[in-house]
Amino acid sequence: MHRLLHSLFDKVEITRDLILLLVIGGLYSLGIFLSNTFVNVYLWKQSGDYITIAMYNLGIFLFQPAAFILAGKLAKKVDRIIVLRLGVIFLSIFFLSVLIIGEKAAYFNFMLGSFLGIGYGFYWLAFNVLTFEITEPDTRDFFNGFLGVLESFGGMIGPILAGFIISIMAANTGYTTIFTVSFLLFILAVVFSFFLKRRNAEGQFKFKLILNERLNNKNWQKALHAHVSQGLREGIFLFVITIWVFLTTKSELALGTFNLFLSGLSFIFYFVATKVIKPSKRKKAILIGGLMLYFSIYIILFQISYWHLMVYAIVIGIAYPIINVPYISMTYDVIGQARFAKELRVEYIVVRELFVNIGRVLAIVIFLISVSIMSAEKVIPVLLAIFGAGYLIIYFFMKDVNLADLSGKEEVIVKEQLSDEKKR
Questions:
Q1: Spatial CA neighbour of 132 closest among 228, 220, 17
Q2: Burial of 29 (0-12, 13-18, 19+ CB in 10 A)
Q3: CB within 8 A of 52, min separation 6: which ones?
Q4: DSSP state, 197?
Q5: Which of 111, 105, 117 shows the shortest CA–CA distance to 38?
Q6: Burial of 8 (0-12, 13-18, 19+ CB in 10 A)
Q7: Each residue's pLDDT tens digit, 200-211
Q8: 132-141, 169-178, 188-197, 276-285 — which one is most confidently predicted on average?
Q9: Which among 163, 151, 162 has a CA at the least distance from the CA of 317?
């Protein structure tokens, strides 16, 4: 794999740890896409109401930032790899709990969401910090793009395979099978983590300092506002569209096919975006991707059928890579060029995820209030039209980010950080 990547990206310095991190990210994505898409459907089939699904997702988004903060403190005391393993362990506990609880899972929706949120928090804190430490400005577009390719591949194979398994097996045997396979994939990810170089903890956890840094660093402030906007869209889109596809088709296999089209196009366009979108074109790409994501909503807003949903999948499958590759890379560069980036990179990642989840929680709380006082069929299209603008609004924050406006002192910090990363 190392030689293959070098042949495809001969101008990019690809390290052993970078490849291992990509493998771990790929296993995680396959495990999540294989099962998590169908957890919402699994709960829906038991409860038949949006509030149950929303409360499950609220549990995820409330406990995820709390876990991020706890994981951030832990990452300053122990090896980051241990934090990564803890995340995978909690994800494993989540799937084991679903297997044990079985047909009564809907009654434990919030608890299950909390397990998943804790797993996400620990995993993504460690993964993002490792990404920041292992990659450099000239390899971040490659890493984010290739990780997007792996995620898209998992999104292609996972749901369609899971949908097929569920459709050919009786009762809930199919769900039991895919949850078990996901558990095994997470165990394999833990095994690969043992081959990563140890990254010893150092310093104190200064969460409040970096939280308040947004008052001094306009780039950081704008990036955080963009992440709240991102969270507003993700808060309800992550589960509403899945339920709509299932209700329209009454088939898990059709849901898997929907994700196959979405991820198949993302698989291609993440690769293209990595090669085509250069740093000078990042802001323009964010605008184009944001516009595509927002206007794609109107494909399914007024009339919904499986054909409309497939067209929607095609459009967003193209749009997500166009916006995500430059957006994620710009965010890491903002962090990399901020004050104390070398010493407090963990805190920057924690604060970033806190703001994403502020947007997600806000969206779900508004959703819960809305569906409790109005008909879900009437209010959901309105909420999608409003919150669907989240990724488009990202552009209006990121367009004013100026990575050239740095003091000489900060530039020295960046150079020291990059040198330090190369040694690792």
A1: 17
A2: buried
A3: 43, 44, 46, 106, 109
A4: P
A5: 105
A6: middle
A7: 666 788 889 999
A8: 276-285
A9: 151
